[in-house]
Amino acid sequence: MFFPVFVVSCGPKHLLCYTNISLVRYNYCTKDGKIMERLSNEVEKLPPVTVRVQELFDHLGLNASSATKALGYNTTSKLYKILQGSEPSLPTLVDFQRKWPELSLDWLVLGEGPMLRGSVAVCKPESFGSGVVNSGKVLAVTVGLDGQENTELVPVNAQAGYTLQHNEAVFVRELPKYRIPRFERGTFRAFEVSGDSMEPTVNHSDIVVTSYVDNWRLLHPGEMYVVVTSESVMLKRIRERITGRDMTVLLYSDNHHCKPYPMDAADITELWRVRGYISSYLPSSPDVTIERLWEVIEQLGFDKGEVRRHLAESGPISGPNT
Question: 308 FRET partner, CA 20 to 30 A, in 96, 130, 208, 301?
Answer without folding.
Answer: 208
